[in-house]
Automatic annotation (TrEMBL):
The entry's keywords: DNA-binding, Transcription, Transcription regulation
Superkingdom, natural source: Bacteria
Name this polypeptide is given: Short-chain fatty acyl-CoA regulator family protein
A Pfam short name: HTH_3
Keyword DNA-binding: yes
Amino acid sequence: MRSPRRRLFEGFRLRELRRRLGLSQAAMATQLGISVPYLSQIENNGRPITDVVLLALAREFPMEAADIGTEAETSALLRTIDAATDTSIPAHALSEPDVRRGLEQQPLLARRLVAVHEAWRRSQEQLRVLDDRFDTGSSDAAPLPWEEVRDWFQAEGNYIDVIDRSAEALADALDEGPVTQALEDRLRRWHGVRVTGEDSDGSQLSRFDEATRTLALNAGLPLESRAFLLAHRLVRYEFANEMHHVVAEAGLAGQASRELLSVGLANYAAGALLMPYNAFRTRAREVRHDIDRLRQRFGVSFEQACHRLSTLQRPGAAGLPFFFCRVDMAGNITKRHSATRLQFAALGGACPLWIVHEAVAIPDRILVQLAEMPDGTRYVSMAKGLVKPSGSYARPPRRYAVALGCEEAHAADFVYADDLRPGGAATPIGASCRICPRTDCDQRAFPPAGSVIEIDADRRSVVPYAFR
């Protein structure tokens, strides 16, 4: 016999959430679709928080839903509703009441549904990789080291718990005052590392001499880059055991992949040290993920703050689910991660209709866009073009753009959505031409992989062929 489900009495958390958001009982009750007396009873622990209320919380306050209830209860409910209502599957979606009844009456069947859905998503990602490789003529069976490491981080949800929590503890232990000074002091006192500056043409950002324990930093670095490199060196000492264990358990094929993962973990740890999880997540919620305000508060770069937002996937305390990427002048995606349903093409560039490409050509200006994928999912995205000086006239500066976005359902928590009309017209985009099924796109570069080309010499359109 199945044991009865524990009744959830955590009204104080709901009350704290409402007060933190500055909502009256009437306002929150309206958003949750319940009466004011019912909400009052829940807050005073006179009534339990039901699945209906948990789902409403997840829908209206997605970042805070994980703070209420146990991780298992909330996670099971949200994963089941996600699997049952995925619009990318061409079948009749289940209603929320049906999902709730199924989870309560047939929990094993619900878990099976979630497992099948996750397996289907993995197979779709593998299909995207195979389509890309086939269409670009790549016959190598094994991925390149950087591809293997990139896919490993994606599979981990871009969140490494043991390193993130260690970085948070280390941040608390640092001396008060400017972060660069605190990092230098820790390196000197605990690890015998002396920090110096040196003139450079920009070809090297830092150089470490193990024999003399000297870290030489490029004298022309901006303050946030200097802080990151100091943090990067510090975490390689402080978290050596943790990173070694993660690499050993990752199961990567080659030595180059393992060494590249070590560098990636140090980069991850440095960002987590400069932007400690709970402090950064709390501040991000307060400023509605305004990157400039976060950048100033934590002394980091615009790109670093964007990247950190995409890593806030701690179980039970997740941040807003974002996708993040960096695109160069040629349209190549040089960094990418998605905690949303949006998946980037494994190889090559992105859809030309995506605002990030325009942002590359317009540095230091934020552009926003409401876009819709072929499966009907709509995203609010922000993109900004950045220019990093090279330090020398002989070396061109680095130019690229970063993009950050979330599903339209979370627009109220994303300050960049304020200038967009909710439910308004959206730009139709795809992951890439190789895997995009749209038949009416004027910007298509080539037909999708595996399609049959149809050419009508008597009809002329922007794209000189049709496909099926």
